[in-house]
């Protein structure tokens, strides 16, 4: 998951772990700005066909991103980041 630093750059939140490559492989958690996590997860699927858990934990929102063999770097670096940018701007 080499694209995590790019994701972090558009989602200004407190960093919860280093952004060095040894911290990322198939699973990452990205902090999100305050949001309605249930609505965001539903909209990601309904409007973008992106299925990832958006969770609330201790008054903070997070996206749990799991990368599989069929995912391309573009899936995360462009599609997910662009979708989050559009949906969170509303």
Task: Summarize the structure in words.
The chain is α+β, with helices and mostly antiparallel strands. It has a single domain, classed as Aspartate Aminotransferase, domain 1. 40% of the residues lie in helices and 19% in strands. It contains 3 helices and 3 strands, in the order αβαββα. β2 and β3 form a beta hairpin. α1 runs parallel beside α3 and α2 packs across α3.
Salient structural properties:
single chain; 90 residues; alpha+beta; Aspartate Aminotransferase, domain 1; three-stranded antiparallel beta sheet; 3 helices; 19% strand; globular
Summarize the structure.
This protein has helices at 4-10, 37-48, 73-89; strands at 27-32, 54-57, 60-66. With 90 residues, it is α+β, with helices and mostly antiparallel strands.
Topology:
Layout: H1 4-10, E1 27-32, H2 37-48, E2 54-57, E3 60-66, H3 73-89
Antiparallel strand pairs: 1-3, 2-3
Helix pairs in contact: 1-3, 2-3
Instruction: Give the oligomer, counting copies of the same chain as homo and different chains as hetero.
Output: single chain
Shape-level CATH architecture: Alpha-Beta Complex
The SS-based structural class is alpha+beta
Average pLDDT reading: 80
The number of distinct β-strands equals 3
Instruction: Kindly estimate the percentage of residues that lie in beta strands according to DSSP.
Output: 15-25%
Number of helices: 3
Shape from CA axes? globular
Name the poorly predicted regions: none
Percent range of helical residues: 40-55%
Order of helices and strands: HEHEEH
CATH hierarchy class name: Alpha Beta
Taking all Cα atoms into account, the compactness measure Rg is 12 Å
> Spatial order of the strands in the main sheet?
1-3-2
Major sheet size, sense and barrel closure: 3 strands, antiparallel
Task: Tell me the domain tally.
Answer: 1
């Amino acid at each position: 998951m080499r694209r995590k630093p790019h994701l972090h750059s558009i989602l200004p939140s407190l960093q919860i772990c280093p952004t060095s490559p040894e911290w990322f492989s198939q699973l990452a958690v990205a902090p999100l700005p305050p949001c309605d996590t249930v609505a965001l997860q539903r909209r990601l699927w309904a409007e973008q066909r992106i299925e990832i858990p958006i969770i609330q934990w201790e008054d903070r929102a997070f996206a749990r991103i799991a990368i599989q063999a069929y995912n391309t770097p573009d899936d995360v670096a462009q599609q997910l980041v662009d979708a989050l940018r559009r949906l969170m701007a509303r």
